[in-house]
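User: These chains co-purify. Model them together.
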Amino acid sequence: MEQSQEADRDGESVITYRTVEYIVAAVVLAVSILFLYGSYIVGIGWGIVGPQSGWYPFYVTLIIALCSIATIIKTLRTPRGGKLEQTFIERGQLKRVLLVLVPAALFVLGMELIGIYYAGTIYIALFMRYIGKYPWWRAWLLAIVINIIFFIMFEIWFAVPLYRGIYHFYGWTGY
Amino acid sequence: MSDVAFLMHGFAVALTPANIGFMFLGVFLGVIIGVLPGLGAANGIAILLPLTFSMTPTSGIIMLSCIYWGALFGGAIASILFNIPGEPWSVATTFEGYPLAKQGRAGEALTTSFSSSFFGALCAVIILTFVAPIVARFALRFGPPEFFAVYLLTFFSFVGMGKASPYKVLAAMMIGFALAAVGIDTITGTPRLTFGVSKLLTGFDFLIAVIGLFGIGEILLSMEEGLKFQQEAVKINPRVVLQTWAKLPKYYIIFIRSMFIGVWMGVTPGGATPASFMSYGVAQKMSKQPENYGTGIIEGLVAPETAAHAAGTSALLPMITLGIPGSPTAAVLLGGLLIWGLEPGPLLFVQKPDFVWGLIASMYIGNVAGLIVVLSGVPFFAAILRVPFGIIAPIIVEICAVGAYTVHNAMLDVWFMIGFGIVGYFFKKLEYPMAPLVLAIVLGDKEEASFRQSMLVSQGHLSIVFTSSYLSGGLTVLAFIMLFWPLLAKGVRRILPKRAGVMADRPVE
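Assistant: Joint model of the two components:
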């Protein structure tokens, strides 16, 4: 019962294009104001040797700020009922996007801690098990094989050492 | 030495056993990258770029450009067999390709699209061979104002020619310039926009942006659509190939027209994607039976494939002659040249003839290699596409992470990659264009330098770009015409009676 109710809600709209347009433009505007300030503190004037360091980024970010304001105004002035009122993302779609994004971010966190090979193995195995719905043995087997291939490729063939993590717990192996 | 002699010398450079090996490896990897949604030519090359640092620049660029050719070929496989464009430029291929495959003519469709791509690319390379040295010789006379005018033209064309809102194009582009400005100011040496984060002193690398925007962003988008692969049966054997080849010559007019559309769109920073849509639209408009389009006809497949490949190839012309890439992928290749310590631009022809002509010669051979690889490997590449998303998604994410990390051996870059991925997802859905953003990050430093040098010469008078020479003045005027093109076109349309085009209705990236 609960399952089907959950499935019914997958088609629900989470947010419309109009709202996302406002949010994205506002975020861009906020970042550009930060950059305007950043340029201002290194000097936006005309120094002894020509334009100061902040001069060029100041005007570049000024254009960004003006463009985001223009986008907000344009969105405000677009009459209701058009494409902007359509669904930006449905519940089910949002769930699927987060199912990729959140594990990916956790994987990067894991990479930071224990290095790419171990984090990568765990990431692929768990992703295959819980999102791909494969049996445990297949998930682990493939994850380990792929990371061994990566290891041979990067560390031995291309001689590019990848990140070992803050806790390089297998340092005694020589790798 | 004449250009032909230089070209022959180039073949001698490119035709070493090692380079031929790199070519096939590059094409092979490129097709895989092109087949998989989520991995594209631009981010595929960005990921593999750090791995080529141990090679000589010539071998490196040969392998990377072959990845590009492979990806151009590979996009068609996914479009025709699965109705999923593996690359943006193969969206127009699905219009006719998938209906053909559903009729059981997948082999014919694949052969047609590969052959059209091949000839499109070949003609573009021939044009490039003879035009590039002329452009380069001409560009040797350029000073900072001229280069700045050329940059202006490139970037303004995006605003005027793009279908997206001009505010969004301009915002995306300027975000690119702003990101490029982060770090040490190359002229005065002052750190700026780092907000006290010492790791930001080196700035944002365009490779990270490419991997995030195109790689992670694309995976998020594919996941949202919840891809379900349904493959049409494919039968491709020498007989089908030969039968199709026998039929193709009668489409020569479509082919020539598409080729010119492609070359033009590639040299101007339109790129392969708009070229393919435009070519398809024109073919439909000029057709005697436009109503048949969409039901699976060969003409509709020849047009976009020829144009896409011609555009993809000719996008390298402004890159090697002026140092201005015509497409995001060309921008990544250009970034590669800079990392190898080569200064792209007219001097490259004088200083590194081995490199330039080796690259041009490798375009001829690389496309032959590409045709061989795709024609013989279709079943294998189709099998790769059948690997479910539950397996392939985490692998792609890990490959992207490797790519992002190896750029500067910095963990922070991997986090930026995730950030750019989220930005890429929203920007793509809201039609903020990615191409000008990436180009701006790549060219940012050079553009700023030529702008500031021009300003120094003129003591801060912007008018220098108009007055320094007829050339820079003319280019600047042209740039402003491009910028205000939508307004000008509106004015022209008001005067002339309305004529709705097919092209205008097509979505263009």
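Confidence is low (pLDDT under 50) at residues 498-509 of chain B.
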